[in-house]
Design brief:
The chain is mostly helical. The chain is about 85% helix and about 0% strand.
Length: about 675
């Protein structure tokens, strides 16, 4: 019980610290009236989108609540003699959906207020701007882990049943998928429309106030890269803890404990919760060591953020070692956590190497712009495919080590270790959209070019840290999804999937198809929404007299509405498919076929997600490398070629790629929650 008290305390401390950081950010100068007016337009657009999205999702959540209450809480459990007086799984589902939405809302609320303040601080210097942007990102990071740990711990304490807590993860994953897809479609439709018409056709700078899609583009940074990402990593975080609880409950461990479930507060249950609590305190300490000098280049900026992450990781290891020794548990569990942390760092660093223009890979793509956009596209695709090798090998080694040391329980615990420092790793990711917005505000407000140079440096760094964050999310998704699949196999009593069984093979193929189908649907959705945006922006330049000369205002509201309607319309089918496919396969082909589906989806989804995220990040930073004055600089043919690559990469890295890691976890947790139907 002491550990549960500690976990609750850690969650409350996290929320208190997030509140302190929020007040610190809000105390900063928000700028003059012109800057504040631009900030208000972004804030209103972001909140309007989130309101419409959450209203639509509320209908889906209520419908799923009824399904879970009827088919899981009452019907199935009544047949097994364990009927519940209340729809416990359905209630947990509602709690998970609400918590996931809340995590995204909190992060976006501070981001749309920190952008103007970062702009003002960029007038003073690079380090002050970094501190404000990073603090706003830390609000999201710390809030996500605080809300997540509180939710899982409270439900475990109350219900003492992993199958009910799995409903919390299902709710979190449902909202995360829709938020990631909807936000991703919104932001990339606006971004592509702004780039293709503004930069290439009209030859005006990025975020120029004459561009009708500018405000929609800045809004998109918040609804996609902040709210969507917050919900995404929230479900990764809680999913890893739930998977460990589930495997401990079904006895899937090589630690010589056949049935650790005598008490809900047995050590195997409490260890992942304790590690998560230690991670919260470590992440808070890590935020205080992020500093940089005024003349810092990209390398120094990266090390400023790495210092915070490495500090938090070291503290987690020390705390975990003490905890395992104090609980008199097998010390192999410490090495499992270490393996997860190291694997996460290697995957993150690999993503950084393949996407930062400090390294030769991205510079090579920029150099290919000398021969036009076709070679840029070829180079980016090749780089994305090559970048899957290191993460793939690292995940294989991490799984092997974790399984050797602690069985499938160890695989899940490695994911907990990988995400234990999420409070600060998410902060280094979430600050990027704030810096991007700050640059847009500086351009629209007509500030000194030096201000834009500083925000661009932070934005380029944000692209790299975002790729690193996506690497963490995707790597942990594989470990978590595998652990959830193992828990599913234990629940349905199938320890070995027979590859000679035609149903299993069919399930594997269907599962392998799912990530490609999902990516295709989301890519095409971005394409359709972007076409509408391009058409509208062209219309405004053609029909609004004086727009190009800067004497007449653009109709920003119209562009914002187009992105919003496109996202609402297009996000439904991919999200519904991810939930219904595993249920349909399990119901029609059986439990073994559903296991095959999970195997196929995890394998292809992992590699496709890495490829898309890293290719998109490399294309984006190749463009920024040229914009920094290299290879002809802005306005050159090389720049135009790089913009085309960046445009292709936008839905790769910000819509389809990051949503795939949610897809594989969502299908795994759907299988676990609905497993009683397939017994």
């Amino acid at each position: 019980m002491t550990i549960l008290y500690l976990a609750i305390a850690a969650g409350l401390v996290a929320l208190a610290f997030a509140l302190v950081l929020t007040m610190r950010v809000l105390r900063e100068d928000a700028g003059d009236e012109k800057i504040q007016a631009i900030g208000r337009a972004i804030q209103e657009g972001a909140m309007a989108f989130l309101s419409r999205e959450y209203r639509l999702l509320a209908i889906f959540v209520v419908g799923m609540f009824i399904v879970l209450a009827v088919f899981i809480d009452y019907d199935v459990l009544d047949k097994t003699g364990t009927d519940r007086n209340i729809p416990s799984t359905a209630i947990a589902y509602i709690a998970g959906a609400f918590a996931s939405a809340l995590a995204g809302f909190v992060g976006m609320s501070i981001a749309v207020r920190a952008n103007t303040r970062t702009t003002v601080k960029a007038m003073q210097g690079l380090n002050p701007a970094l501190r404000v942007a990073f603090n706003s990102g830390a609000v999201m990071g710390i809030s996500v882990v605080g809300i997540g740990l509180l939710g899982v711990t409270a439900l475990w304490w109350v219900f003492k049943d992993f199958s009910i807590v799995a409903g919390f993860g299902f709710g979190a994953s449902s909202i995360a998928l829709f938020a990631r897809v909807g936000g991703g479609i919104y932001t990339k439709a606006a971004d592509i429309g702004a780039d293709l018409v503004g930069k290439i056709e009209q030859g005006i700078p990025e975020d120029d106030p004459r561009n009708p899609a500018t405000v929609a583009d800045n809004v998109g940074d918040n609804v996609g890269d902040v709210a969507g990402m917050g919900a995404d990593l929230f479900e990764s975080y809680v999913g890893s803890i739930i998977a460990t609880l589930a495997l401990a409950a079904v006895g899937a461990t090589a630690l010589g404990v056949a049935d650790p479930t005598g008490d809900f507060d047995a050590n195997l249950f409490l260890l992942p919760i304790l590690i998560a609590a230690i991670g919260i305190f470590a992440a808070i300490v890590g935020t205080f060591v992020v500093r940089t000098g005024e003349d810092a280049g990209m390398g120094r900026l990266l090390w400023a953020l790495r210092t915070g992450i490495f500090t938090a990781g070291g503290l987690v290891l020390i705390g975990t070692g003490i905890a395992i020794a104090s609980l008199d548990m097998d010390f192999n569990l410490f090495w499992v956590v270490l393996a997860g942390l190291v694997a996460g760092q290697i995957i993150g660093t690999s993503s950084e190497v393949f996407t930062s223009y400090e390294y030769r890979f991205t510079r090579g793509i920029a150099e290919q712009a000398e021969t036009g956009p076709a070679t840029v596209i070829i180079g980016g695709l090749g780089l994305g495919m090559l970048s899957t090798v290191i993460p793939g090998v690292v995940i294989v080694v991490a799984i092997w080590l974790a399984n050797e040391l602690a069985g499938t329980y160890g695989v899940a615990l490695a994911a907990v270790g990988m995400l234990s420092t999420l409070g600060i790793t998410l902060a280094t990711d979430a600050y990027g959209p704030v810096a991007d917005n700050a640059g847009g505000i500086a351009e629209q407000a007509g500030l000194d070019p030096e201000v834009r140079e500083r925000t661009d440096a932070l934005d380029a760094l944000g692209n790299t840290t975002a790729a690193t964050g996506k690497g963490f999310a995707i790597g942990s998704a594989v470990l978590t999804a595998l652990a959830l699949m193992a828990a599913y196999s234990e629940v349905v009593g199938i320890r070995v999937f027979n590859l000679l069984d035609a149903n299993v093979l069919m399930g594997v193929i269907v599962g392998a198809i799912m990530p490609f189908l999902f990516a295709a649907l989301t890519m095409q959705a971005v394409g359709r929404a972007a076409m509408e945006m391009v058409t509208e922006v062209r219309r405004q330049f053609r029909e609004i007299a004086g727009l190009m000369e800067g004497t007449a205002p653009a109709d920003y509201a119209r562009a914002v509405d187009i992105s919003t309607r496109g996202a609402m319309r297009e996000m439904v089918l991919p999200g519904a498919l991810a939930i219904t496919a595993p249920i349909a396969v399990g119901a029609i082909l059986g439990a073994e076929a559903l296991g095959g589906l999970l195997v196929g989806a995890i394998a292809t989804g992992f590699l496709l997600a890495i490829m898309m995220a890293n290719a998109g990040g490399a294309w984006d930073n190749a463009k920024k490398y040229i914009e920094a004055g290299n290879l002809g600089g802005k306005g050159s043919p090389q720049h135009a070629a790089a913009v085309v690559g960046d445009t292709v990469g936008d839905p790769f890295k910000d819509t389809s790629g990051p949503a795939l890691n949610i897809l594989i976890k969502l299908m795994s947790i759907v299988a676990l929650v609905f497993a009683p139907l397939f017994l």
